[in-house]
Every structure is written in C-alpha cells, then in structure tokens.
Amino acid sequence: MPNPTSISATPIKKGKKPKRSPTLIGWRERIALPDLGLEGVEAKIDTGARTTALHASHIRTFEKDGTPWVMFHPEHDRLDADSTLQMPVHDRRAITNTSGIPDERIIIRTTLQIAGHALTVDVSLADRADMAFPIIIGRSALKRGRLIVDSGKSWLTTSTKGDSDENRNARS
C-alpha cells in the first residue's frame, strides 16, 4: 500500500521545458507580424482553418540568390499597409478555400505576435479582399501558442480600442 504522505511527481524529461498554461483569447484579437512590419492587425481566430492566411494581392514569385521569394501587396480595408512586401517562399500547398475547393497557395514562414507570445508560423497568401478580416489565425498557430478561444468574447488580450459593447462589460 502506498504511503499517503509521499509526494508523487511527474518526472520532467531532460532538456524539455514544462509546458506553460494555455492562454485564453477571443474570436477577434489584434496581432502583429513584425517581420512584415504589420502591427495592430485585426485578426479573426478561425478554428475551422488549419493554416493561418493573410490577404495578399499582386502576388509574384522571383528568385533571389537562387532561392524562391514572393512579392505581394497586403492592402485591405482593415489593414494599414500600402507597401509591397517580400519574403522567402517556404512552401506551396493545396489549401481548401472557403468554398471547399483546393487552391494552391504560396506559404511564407514568419513571426506572429499574439497574446504576448511570439510564434513562428506558416502563413498562406490568399486574396481576402472580400473578407471582413485581412488575416485569419488557424489551428496550427493556436496549437503552437497553446491558445484557447472563447468564441463569445473579443479583444481579450488587447486594449479596448475597437472593442464591442458586448465585451467591454464582460471583462473583470
């Protein structure tokens, strides 16, 4: 029979940090993509999407020092960006669009700042001009950042600027 006063602890594997607690976020949050010079971007958290997607128009690929790069313009009604951006191409993938049709997209790898965390994430470039948000944050980024979504709340990790009345009074 085990001794009731003994302490049972889960051993930590050598070289591994203990996992931090998950962070609660709303279905809308402000994020930054510092490698792209984008700050305070209104993002939709989309648990139905696997990959994060950023609005991009005028997408062109080119080679730089023998490596594939992409040039694109992220202009969107909710995004204050008027310059052309360039990033190395990380991958090309068939991603199912909102109509359920696979669409080959260029993937870039960049830093996403959300809820006080800096994450390296894959981002697909897509025409989101007709969408309400210039970027959606997909499940892969949520998993990497240990982020949990409260679908009834918005702007939980940012200031109340742009906050809706329904959420202003919900915070403690």
CATH superfamily: Acid Proteases
Secondary structure: helix percent? under 10%
Q: Which sequence of SSEs, written as H and E, runs from N to C?
A: EEEEEEEEEEEHEH
CATH fold description: Cathepsin D, subunit A, domain 1
> Which percent band covers the strand fraction?
35-45%
Low-confidence spans: pLDDT under 50, at least 5 residues? Answer: 163-172
**CATH class wording:** Mainly Beta
Q: How are strands sequenced across the largest beta sheet?
A: 2-3-11-4-10-9-8
Number of helices: 2
Rg (C-alpha, Å): 19 Å
Q: Alpha-carbon distance between the termini?
A: 46 Å
How many structural domains in the coordinates? 1
How does the major sheet shape up? 7 strands, mixed
Q: Count all strands and give the number.
A: 12
Structural class from helices and strands?
mainly beta
The CATH architecture name reads: Beta Barrel
Structure description:
By secondary structure, the chain is mainly β. The chain has a single domain, classed as Cathepsin D, subunit A, domain 1 (Beta Barrel), CATH 2.40.70. The chain contains 2 helices and 12 strands, in the order E-E-E-E-E-E-E-E-E-E-E-H-E-H. The strands form 3 sheets. The chain has a 7-stranded mixed β-sheet with strand order 2-3-11-4-10-9-8. It is globular, with a radius of gyration of 19 Å.
